[in-house]
Amino acid sequence: MTAFADLMAFQRETEALAQIAGRLGWDQETVMPAGAAHQRGEEMGAIEGVLHARRTDPRVGDWLGTAEAPDAAGQRALDLIARAYRRNACIPARLAAETARVTSVAQGIWAEARGKDDVAHFLPTLEHVVALRREAGQALAAGGFGGGDVYDALLDDYEPGATGAGIAAVFGRMRPRLVALRAALLGARHAPVPLAHRFGKDGQMALARDLAGAFGYDWSRGRLDLAVHPFSSGSGNDVRITTRVSESDPFNCFYSTVHEVGHATYEQGIDQAYLLTPLGAGVSMGVHESQSRIYENQLGRSRAFTGWLFGRMRETFGDFGVADAEAFYGTVNRVQPGYIRTEADEVHYNLHIMMRFDLERQLMSGALAVADLEEAWNSRFAADFGVAVDRPAHGMLQDVHWSVGLFGYFPTYALGNVYAGCLHKALRAAVPDLDAALARGDAAPATGWLNDCLQRHGGLYAPAEVVERACGFAPDEGPLLDYLETKFRAIYRL
Amino acid sequence: MTAFADLMAFQRETEALAQIAGRLGWDQETVMPAGAAHQRGEEMGAIEGVLHARRTDPRVGDWLGTAEAPDAAGQRALDLIARAYRRNACIPARLAAETARVTSVAQGIWAEARGKDDVAHFLPTLEHVVALRREAGQALAAGGFGGGDVYDALLDDYEPGATGAGIAAVFGRMRPRLVALRAALLGARHAPVPLAHRFGKDGQMALARDLAGAFGYDWSRGRLDLAVHPFSSGSGNDVRITTRVSESDPFNCFYSTVHEVGHATYEQGIDQAYLLTPLGAGVSMGVHESQSRIYENQLGRSRAFTGWLFGRMRETFGDFGVADAEAFYGTVNRVQPGYIRTEADEVHYNLHIMMRFDLERQLMSGALAVADLEEAWNSRFAADFGVAVDRPAHGMLQDVHWSVGLFGYFPTYALGNVYAGCLHKALRAAVPDLDAALARGDAAPATGWLNDCLQRHGGLYAPAEVVERACGFAPDEGPLLDYLETKFRAIYRL
Q1: Residues A28, B1: contact at Cβ < 8 Å?
Q2: Which listed residue (B29, B48, B260, B343) is catalytic?
Q3: ipTM of the assembly?
Q4: Does the CB of A97 have a partner CB in chain B at under 8 Å?
Q5: Does domain B166-491 have CATH number 1.10.1370.30?
Q6: I need a labelling partner for B412 at 20 to 30 A (CA). Which of A96, A101, B62, B385 fits?
């Protein structure tokens, strides 16, 4: 028991320091003065150095060798610590330091390249990042992670237990139905009207706060600020969200807020007994995204909830040119091919992910050279979306992920959608009168069910396991596709 | 040279981590959700633990034993590191971590107690904090700091070289002249008119920003937020200030802002070569306060500058019942016994400090029990100010300092006033036409002189030494008392 208690006390401090590093990230994106950037780089380097030293501290290995867990939760905590320790041990210190240094610079170079639509400015850096991540993947694969596969070894960090082959199989079954649905919708005679109005910033922020409240965000343990790219940050009792405001597109503000509230209430809703332990955070990126997505889409973009939102928007902004709640439901759910993943509708979103997944797997296997990425991206986009990429900022430069070394992260977004589809099916069965509450702007019956069945467990169960426990069936893509076809064929009167 | 370079590289990371801890403090006072308080306590405990481990790392002792400085600045850095190393070595890690944890939580409890005027709610926590600080003082005294005196050992952390006996002697010389001046002013036939008007919050904040700019605050490396108790936070290129707003008392907002700008521009103005080194911060609390006080009082409350402020307030708020700039100068400098130290006029301010100094010395020596503090406070206040404390929030609950363990800190405020008096005398001799600039709302000739003569040196010289270098004479209380008597007797037409 002493080794277990010592390890847990050490781990608790590490988790607290990781929370601090996360909050520095929040600060940097929301309130930091611009002139502090260089100094902040040194500060982040210092705390990341402390965290790396703790995560590879030989005492952790010693404790793991003798610690005995008092219960199942304790055993799960030991397993998670052991897994992270073994992963970190595979990465040579030189590679970890070089990756930290190169990716921190790469993010700035990516932003510059994106700003001036200059792929060539980014390519040498991306080549360096890809080489470093392949090296890390190879080291992890050699250590037994990902069943010896480089891409799977990286993916395993974001979605433990998932494999590239498994995701490819899911995507293979999803693609034909999504492509058929997309074709039917784009060919339909009826189409919802787009918004054509200006929406004041103060009104948007006030309504965003109401939306966060409707979905159960606990303001006593969080706050809402503006950021260039919305995100949620922190675990336990300090979980902050951000959004952005565009006067022509209030849905960007509203649904970014609801999305981040999904992430944040997952963190806020974890059993307080797990605070600052390996169980005290969402279990995987895919499960996290299932929460943000079901809040945003299956609940937030439902006919019932958008009916309430329509009324609130009319109260806030007056007549904005949409006749009634039924028309508004169509406007919210308008399907249109677009360049940008983060602005994609529910039907197109997963096609963006499938494309990134195929491209990044090829980059990691070496089948695709970085020099050929732009051509591969553009030809694939034209084939999948029927539109030619007009500029690199709308193409391969649109997302920050690869610049900071996140290979294996993108598919977790689609996995989150798949999980959200399953959870929504189970939720509707468990709470048959949910629409009546949603129509009053009250998502509590849904968020209460999600908290009880999934969120409160934190890291206690493996990703697919916690979803299966919540749903009562093994998750697959069927419920998501059924939901999309039913919902969008009705909106488009097919 | 290798030991010196290694030590400086290690110290640089430690300084960066200390900046992070400071920024967490800023976060806690400005933007942190209330429900995060306990978790934040653990986070602060974790990073303070890391800092304590680094500051007592045996390698630092080894490096100090062999390091050779390349120049005088390097030698001063070595001396400061050695002094801090010897101090920290006196404090057991357990005590450092417990103090960090307890004081972080204590701050919230103090705020609650102050909010509901409930001394009993705060007493157990204050007892805990006092016990921890006495234990630290005893450990430091046993290690030879403060000449073996518990209070002096703590004071030495904020004002190296100062002693309780020395400060008591200065206060002993100041008190009769202050008491006589106070009696004369309160008995004068003429008295300035008080403000009797409401001043909108937005207008106050806009003017506070203008004031910060007038005193040279660099917005690209800082920001202004609201806090219950205004403070300045951070060093180098991220130095943030806070203020507060009362609709009936705009001077609270304005002069808190100018005060914090004094602290902040000291930090912002330090030679960039000293960034994240032991020389990269203000050298002591007393010298720090000399900057905030000369900005706030000798400059900000001067006849010339208040003339400009009167015009700006008329532009912002319209006619607010003060006839002209001359009357406004009196209103700004109105002398009145009041409960709150931070709102005290220049004449009463040091009497507040003398009282806290005596009480906290007794708390640290054990001569006064925490349980008896309220009675001791109230009877002393009645004796010194001729007014009975009406509620604890106006008495012993008014300041955050003791809740966060700052014993030995209060006298540095009065020392800052003494230094400010000396610096002001030298400044006026060096910049004879200063009033012409101040009358235009331009403090640059003064802040430029202060930066050149004092601020840019950071920690390069000892506190009394840097003030003497700037002034050209050894500092004492004479110039401050001369200034106060001349200024206030004129305002009160004596």
Answers
A1: no
A2: B260
A3: 0.92
A4: no
A5: yes
A6: B385
